[in-house]
Amino acid sequence: MAKIHTLSVLCGTVLLLLFTAGEAKQPHIVFMVADDYGWNDVGFHNPDMITPNIDKLAYEGVILNQSYVQPVCTPSRNSFMTGVYPFKAGLQHGVILPQQAVCSPLNLTFLPQYLKKEGYATHAIGKWHLGFCKLECTPTYRGFDTFYGYYQGQEDYYNRTAAGGKDFRDNKDPILPDTSKYSTYIFAERARKVISQHDKNKPFYLYFPFQSVHAPIEVPKGYEDMYSNIKNEGRRKYCGMVTAMDDLVGNITAALKENGMYDDTLFVFTADNGGWTQFHGNNYPLRGGKITIYEGGTRATAFINGKMLNKTGYTYNGMMHAVDWMPTIISAAGGTPPEEIDGIDQWESLRTGEPSKRTEFIYNLDDINPPTQGHAAIRVGDYKLIEGFPGVYPGWYKPETETESTNSEEEELKDQERNVRLLGRELYNLKDDPYERHDLSVSHVKIVEELSRKMAEYHKQMVPANYPQNSDTSNPKNFGGYWSPGWC
Ligand SMILES: *[C@@H]1O[C@H](CO)[C@@H](O)[C@H](O)[C@H]1NC(C)=O
Ligand SMILES: *[C@@H]1O[C@H](CO)[C@@H](O)[C@H](O)[C@H]1NC(C)=O
Ligand SMILES: *[C@@H]1O[C@H](CO)[C@@H](O)[C@H](O)[C@H]1NC(C)=O
Ligand SMILES: *[C@@H]1O[C@H](CO)[C@@H](O)[C@H](O)[C@H]1NC(C)=O
Ligand SMILES: *[C@@H]1O[C@H](CO)[C@@H](O)[C@H](O)[C@H]1NC(C)=O
User: Given its phi and psi angles, is residue 334 left (phi above 0), alpha (psi -120 to 50 degrees) or beta?
Assistant: First the structure.
């Protein structure tokens, strides 16, 4: 008896040791989302940009060259959180407007809810924009232990006011941090705080959707002065905002180092959509920008970094989509991603540099108001089919560096527009023609039909867009001057 007992205890110990040795340590995870950040607005794509902290992380990590997002903000963020395409969540038409009684469907489980099950402490700092008309829609009810930031899509970088209401929260509480301070500093202070106060026995998750570099175009003069060579004032300030954001990234990495967490941290950095050309964001040489489904609106500036990656220091050309981050991060955290989502777990591919598991994706499907709005687009392998109106920024816009205004390549654009008006369809081979200059829809009819059929299959799963009229009950006057939950 005694012998058998000893043996089983020994076996148990050996098994336990094997298990512990084989199990990877759960990484800390910092998921950074830059707002309206253009393809051509980062040092690793454009040497005119001053982004040393971002560039260092990117070059020492993996630059993602085919990482796609939605053309606007709310749908991308919903994809990051839920792994579900916006057209299945009713969020395909646009962003949630300030007075719309809409939030990300409450029956969808958010990424931080899964991470909490894996033992993570979960924090959010920055912009929410996934709805707030009732408390159940807000960050601390959707998986975050703490939240520090604002609910709406944009606000002033100093007075923290948007569309006639103040908008800032510490968890649920309305606050108004020092309005003489540029928000980037305020957010950096909060990051230092949650990092230094973190219980080091637990894995740490920080979702950091930056205010930068969304309009309004505001930046402390010191940052603007770093770009004194730029003639256009808006572009000069915008570039300053980019460098302020880069400083924030530097402060996050510094805080993680000071607290002994840096070596165990997986960084994910992505834009939520392309640069907004009207507000000086730039995506050149990609076509278009924010709000359009051309590559300039949807192919994100992105990278990952971390010592747990087995291959680094290169550019990954595998296909990623916004919906993939949720299952990929759950997998990196040691969890099992849910099955009933659109996202694909890409952790092994990203970690080892193996080919992407994704071969196709939907850019968006939106039926509202064609032909001046409403569009559909799909990518399958190297081909991309667009049906309907591609969006309001159809050209190729060079940065306003040497000239006062954007330098759009108009002639080529006129040809393209003629085709679109005539056919309502565009087909591109993104491998040969990543800048979408040569529409193949006339010469490659079979491929058009094949992709169109595929898109129609996806379309069967679409739910109607949840895009109601404004609710007057949302008025901040009813809530002490703050945009607040309690009106839906
Ligand atoms: C969530 O609710 C919507 C609308 O009621 C429904 O269409 C959808 O299938 C539900 N999704 C899940 C994941 O339960
Ligand atoms: C906040 O700043 C904006 C400019 O970005 C201005 O239009 C607005 O009036 C200011 N609001 C308050 C309450 O100071
Ligand atoms: C980052 O940290 C440095 C050093 O503490 C500080 O001077 C700078 O203002 C910080 N930048 C931001 C954007 O918080
Ligand atoms: C990591 O990469 C090395 C080669 O660089 C390889 O020998 C090793 O098997 C890889 N490990 C895993 C777990 O993929
Ligand atoms: C990134 O993609 C572009 C085309 O979209 C391609 O020309 C370029 O070679 C790729 N970069 C790398 C380093 O693979």
Answer: left
What are the residues facing 385 on neighbouring strands? 378, 427
Residue 197 gets which letter from DSSP? T
- β-pairing verdict for 161-162 and 165-166: antiparallel
For ligand 3, the distance from its centroid to the CA atom of residue 179, given in whole angstroms, is 17
pLDDT at 22: 43
Among the listed residues 66, 32, 17, the one whose alpha carbon sits nearest the alpha carbon of residue 382:
66
User: What is the Å distance from ligand 1's center to 468 Cα?
Assistant: 18
Of 82, 85, 107, best ligand 1 pocket probe by most atoms within 8 Å of the beta carbon: 107
The per-residue DSSP string of 14-42 comes to HHHHHHHHHSPPPPEEEEEEETT--TTSS
What is the distance in A from the centroid of ligand 4 to the CA of 57? Answer: 21
Catalytic residue among 28, 45, 73, 239: 73
Pairing of strands 302-305, 265-271: antiparallel
Residue nearest to atom 8 of ligand 5 (CA): 65
* Predicted confidence (pLDDT) at residue 286 exceeds the cutoff of 90: yes
* Cβ neighbour number for residue 458 with a 10 Å cutoff: 18
Per-residue pLDDT tens digits for 137-155: 999 999 999 999 999 999 9
Q: Look up 73 and say whether it is catalytic.
A: yes
pLDDT score, position 415: 53
Q: Taking the complete model, does pTM exceed 0.85, yes or no?
A: yes
Read off the DSSP letter of residue 323: G
Separation between Cα atoms, residue 286 and residue 276, nearest integer Å: 13
CA distance 215 to 293: 20
Quick one: which atom of ligand 1 is closest to the CA of 340? Answer: 13
Say if ligand 5 is within 6 A of residue 113 CB: no
Ligand 3 centre distance from Cα of residue 458 (Å): 46
DSSP string of 407-474, one letter each residue: EE-HHHHHHHHHHHHHHSEEEEETTT-TT-----TTT-HHHHHHHHHHHHHHHTT------PPPPGGG
Pocket of ligand 1 (CB under 6 A): 105, 107-108, 463
| Ligand minimally distant from the alpha carbon of residue 310 | 4
Helix, strand, or coil (residue 151): coil
pLDDT band of residue 24 (cuts 50, 70, 90) is low
Task: Flag whether pLDDT at 14 surpasses 70.
Answer: no
| CA angle 457–94–462, rounded 5-degree value | 20
How far is CA 403 from its chain centroid?
Answer: 30
Q: Please calculate the CA angle 331-337-338 and round it to the nearest 5 degrees.
A: 175
